[in-house]
Design brief:
The structure is a single chain. By secondary structure, the protein is mainly beta. It has 1 helix and 6 strands. The protein has one helix at 29-36, and strands at 3-10, 17-18, 22-25, 41-42, 50-58, 61-70. Strands 1, 2, 3, 4, 5 and 6 form a 6-stranded antiparallel β-sheet that branches. A hairpin with a 6-residue loop joins strand 1 (3-10) and strand 2. It is globular, with a radius of gyration of 12 Å. The mean pLDDT is 92.
């Protein structure tokens, strides 16, 4: 299974928070994000609703980066 680096964001918190990237193994990016958050996630959304940035590296090169947003 591929390894993904997941960074969680909460811009609704006061002050806004960002976690350090965490590495998880998952079949696909949405599964990786769901392992670390209980939010319902969608691919399109407003910046304020950003929940997770999921990145997969191929060596030192970014192979895939997906942003997930809180479901309205």
């Amino acid at each position: 299974m591929p390894k993904y680096s997941v960074t969680l964001y909460d811009f609704r918190a006061k002050p806004p928070s960002v976690t350090l990237p965490q590495t998880v193994e998952a079949a696909e990016p949405m599964s990786a994000a769901r392992q670390l958050t209980g939010e319902e996630l969608v691919l399109n959304g407003h910046f304020v609703n950003l929940v997770a940035e999921v990145t997969r590296h191929d060596g030192k090169v970014v192979a895939q980066r997906v942003m997930f947003y809180r479901k309205p």
